[in-house]
């Protein structure tokens, strides 16, 4: 029994050490980082900014003005979706700062600026004077 134990002990130790080396040497999988509070709050504020913009653009008077200027609501929705988080935040802040009666004019101006910038960048073809 002692002889068997002396023979098997080094073999079992070597097997356990060699078996655990790949686990210890393996790199940590990416994407398992903890999500910080600021990241969660930024995502929530971004969603609320976009919801605020969509809410204003969904109003009937804004829709009528957009159609009067020749801009389709689907195109506006696509452009709002294409806004970066910073642009959406700035637009929502600007909409908050506008006076109560001028929100339609401000919203239309903001939409006009967005359309103008994307037209100048060549992403759309809305205004003929930007060519």
UniProtKB/TrEMBL annotation:
The keyword Transmembrane helix appears for this protein: yes
Q: Which InterPro entries match?
A: PA2779-like, UCP029543
Name one matching Pfam family.
Answer: DUF6627
Is Cell inner membrane set as a keyword in this record? no
Domain of life according to the entry? Bacteria
| Signal peptide extent | 1-25
Tell me the keywords, alphabetical order.
Membrane, Signal, Transmembrane, Transmembrane helix
Spans traversing the lipid bilayer: 100-123
- Name residues in a coiled coil: none
What is the name listed in the Swiss-Prot or TrEMBL entry for this protein? PA2779 family protein
Per the UniProt entry, what species is this protein from, by scientific name?
Halomonas nitroreducens
